[in-house]
Amino acid sequence: MGNIGSYSGKNLFAIGSFLHKVDNLENPNKNTYFFPDAIPDSEEGQGKSLTVTSNSSVQPAALMRLGIFVPANKSGDAGDAIDASEILSSLELSKSEGYTKIMITGPRLNLSTDLKVWMGIIHAFSKYGLASNAITLSFHEFANLCQIPSKRLDSRLRANIRDSLTRIRGKTITLSTIGSRGAYVTGLLKTGRFNADEDTIELEADSKLWELYRADYLTLLRKKPLNALPRQEAAQALYTYLASLPERPADISFTRLRARLMLTNRISDQNKVIRAALEKLKGIGYLDYLLKKEGRETMVRVLSRNPALKPGDL
What we know:
This protein is of the alpha+beta class and 314 residues long. The chain folds into 2 domains: 15-213, no CATH class; 230-305, DNA replication factor Cdt1, C-terminal WH domain (Arc Repressor Mutant, subunit A), CATH 1.10.10. 31% of the residues lie in helices and 19% in strands. The protein contains 11 helices and 12 strands. The chain has helices at residues 15-18, 22-25, 61-65, 92-97, 114-128, 139-145, 155-169, 223-227, 233-243, 254-261, 267-283; strands at residues 56-60, 82-83, 101-105, 134-138, 172-176, 183-187, 191-195, 200-204, 218-222, 252-253, 287-294, 297-305. The two termini are 21 Å apart.
């Protein structure tokens, strides 16, 4: 895929079509510093720019830090409400309308299917969303953008993607002001439709939320660690969280990691899941870390992260 055009100011997923020029990326406090191989030269000779590819996806850091995509819950319960007031307080929509309370509600979004579909949505908009917030593409192409092999394109897969679009569409963002009866209600996706007759996917985004993808900064999420962790949703979730952090993050408490994973079992069992997930990330070559105690709290100190998984690939 070639480099993507620049942001027109009218389109949610344009924002430079998830591009930041390299002078905004070279700040070592931003994660994109870790991915120089994903910043190719522009074909137009305008310097280097960040592009969505089959190996990487530019993601809103806020979505990776909040408990949006979490390990599947066997009970099938809806996800807990997420208070995003602080992290999304800089939205232009929040400031212009005086919204001070931002809540995200709806079904739990898993990592085995929903994150893949979401990354496919991001890839689709980065490819076709320059002119409009509403796009249509073939199911076959959309599945490919989700990195789903063509040999799996059967009725079961179509049902899985349809159900995933329903869950993502059901993830609601409500902006309001404390003490006021008014609110603006939207979602991660304004419309998501699988047209079985034409075998197409139709997607529409809310243009008022384009700033969501710049409110903090963009995270270049490499897909290699995700692919190296099949059916390891806790480790995948921690990877997406760690990938959104600055180059030298502060120590991270297990309390924060439990909140990110949004598990429902006993705290002691959750801690075991976290320890096992950290070891999985270390085992694939992504993470080097230390655990330490501060009172009764266990803290994680990140020593290094390598999304290429092999030393020297960066």
